[in-house]
Amino acid sequence: MAGSRERPVSEATMRRLELATGGVAGAGVAEMSARLPWFSRLTADQRAGVLMVTQLGAANFVTWLRDPEATPRLTAEAFRSAPPDLARRMTLRQTVELVRIATEVFEDRIPALAGNRTERAALVAAVLRFGREVAFAAATVYASAAESRGAWDARLEALVVDAVVRGDRDSDGALLSRASALGWDPAVRAVALVGDPPTEGDGDGPDPLHGVRRAAYRAGVSVLLGAHGSHLVMIMSLDDGRHGHAGRGPDHPADDDEPDPTDPDGLDDEPPPARVADLTRGESKAALALADAFGPGPVVAGPVVAGLLDAHRSAASALAGHRAVAAWPGAPRPVSADELLPERVLAGDAAAVEALVRDVARPLREAGGSLVETVDSYLEHAGVLEACARSLYVHPNTVRYRLRRVADLTGAHASDARGSRLLHMAIALDRLRTTADGTDSPARR
Prior knowledge:
mainly alpha, 16 helices
């Protein structure tokens, strides 16, 4: 039949088919209603839309019998005629179910209109072929819609990430509205990660970030991805558990000069809770998993924030850390932006200066108990505990206790290279500020 210009059925049969299209379409819709539980939940207008598409399909079948070369155009027209509300309401799976039922009804009703056995065989073959073409047309329509939606979502996602990076105040609610349209819950806690995008060929398919999205799906988190210059910015959701903000440890005795009699060697014990996020535990395991999805090079994580409206702070810290991470060749991947405070200070990051003075130097100064003097002496004597104790005229256990107190307050350990560098820089910055101002003014508190 295909490729032959000779009509497979007689003109009389064609007229019977034309007159029967309405009844065939109605029978198809009745069968859909009887067999599909969700069909009855459609509105009257939506069910009428299904009937209209089915009637058009039946009419197109008759037209196609007259001109088989019109198959692609006619099958596509059947779906383009669907009301927009119906197209949004129906999923691809539901559409396939409708096409299957309609084809079964066509197979049952249309061949019965044949004038003889030859025409009946021709109509059976024609219905099967036309049903196949309709199924392909449905898949094409939904694929096109998915591509359009994907392109639109990508543009929307880029706008959201760009607004987060720029720190838009979202006075008109545009940021939250766009994020909600992408399925993001603006109330969940979030963290920003910055790294290099995957190299060409790392992702599967046309989307170069497909591998990143797949890693996020496997980690069970939602992500928003966007470019910032040559870097990839990821906003990652943290919607399970609580963020364990590290900070000051339990209260200690008022007399800071008294050693801990139960732990004379406490300096070498397990470190207390860190001031910065530990990227190897708890909720941050997702950050570890997603770091592998970035391209080669360092990956920097900002602090965890309460929601999307605060994500600009996390993104700003992560971007600042990524600019300075080259100064620490041995930095882990990912590395917290707070762990890069000394490098960020050297890179001219004013926010890092403020953080070191506020979170490290000031707590030590306000705690008293000669903590700052002890840190100075310990670093000056290259970490030799006994020499430090002699210079301060105290017992070595007292030095141990004071250094433990320093670690509790700041999360920095004077006995390791990173901690000693951070403490030295924080105390020096605080002294420079105090010298410049004459005092530590309330404005800086």
